[in-house]
Design brief:
This protein is an all-beta fold and 108 residues long. It contains no helices and nine strands. The strands form three sheets. The protein has a three-stranded antiparallel beta sheet, with no helix packed on it. Pfam families: Rieske (PF00355).
Length: 108
Amino acid sequence: MSATRVCALSDLEQDTALRVEVDGVAIAVVLDASGEVHAIGDTCTHGDISLAEGFVDGDTLECWAHGSAFSLRTGKPLNLPAYEPVPVFEVTIDGDDVLIDPNVKKDI
């Protein structure tokens, strides 16, 4: 499968997560303060909570329910109660299109 357009780059608000779904895979897409776009699994590994409803701080996305923060670069949790990472996906920008293939996880 190839990458799918999930949104326009202009649809993303800086330091705000956007939940998208590609082939049944929920993904949180984030435009960070430095202008880099990240895509991580949208479900907190501590609970069945959408990370896109959480808070972006630098290169982390914090779950609003229990406070676990996940690295946007590695998917690793940076504090408890979560201890399992979320997947991180490759992002391709083509003009104003943000493309993600949920079958291609980023090498960390």
